[in-house]
């Protein structure tokens, strides 16, 4: 049976390479376009459909990606400018139920993602090979994580949630 939670599988860390870097930077750059494409023509009833039983709705997924990637951007800025800073985890399930998420249209978050990812991509594209080895301390994981690992994680994270939406569209025959 298909696990709807992991349509593209789990994140698999990869060693640093120029090709992988270009691929992951492109994932960051084009995530907002991918989300916009995944959402095309969906009406409010469709947007409020859970992508799996008991899961987040499409609407919550989009706001979650914005929540997650705002945190991600801050993690990269901290990791780049400080010596092994401890980053802050957050309660993503609770963040997905606050008033801004429940009351605002998904367009607000896609607009936010276009601006955020433009800044994030330009920032990341300036990294030297050595910059990718800078680390943050991740209290959730209880260990140091380098910015290369973090890049792969967020490239995966964007594709992972986009696939939740596109897989739902396919199963529901929404075209
Ligand atoms: Ni997520």
TrEMBL record:
Keyword Transcription: no
A GO molecular function held by the record: hydrolase activity
Domain DinB-like: 32-165
Record key words, sorted: Cytoplasm, Hydrolase, Metal-binding, Zinc
Any Pfam family matching the protein: DinB_2
Highest taxon in the source lineage: Bacteria
Name of the protein: DinB superfamily protein
Organism: Cnuella takakiae
